[in-house]
Amino acid sequence: MTKVSFDDVPPKSSTVTSYDERHAGTYLRLLDAESAGADWREVVMVLFGLDPVNEPERSRLIYDGHLARARWMRDSGFKHLLRPQGH
């Protein structure tokens, strides 16, 4: 399995970016983990390969930022994906 690289902070664009498209699977997994009540520390280990004990601030920043972006994609970002290209 190829690991997808990620930024510490996802985009804050009001439109879907190429970063969002590359990380759509990660966003879905984050939302699924949240729904299941998974501990955020386990999630960052599995999805981002981070050690929340050694990098607690960075781990939390990455988790919170990507979860917020995943929620945005779920709640409104998906609408941008449904628009025809060039509109």
From TrEMBL:
Pfam families: RovC_DNA-bd (PF10074). This is Uncharacterized conserved protein. Residues 11-83 form the T6SS Transcription factor RovC-like DNA binding domain. The lineage of its organism: Bacteria, Pseudomonadati, Pseudomonadota, Alphaproteobacteria, Hyphomicrobiales. It comes from Enhydrobacter aerosaccus. It comes from the Bacteria.
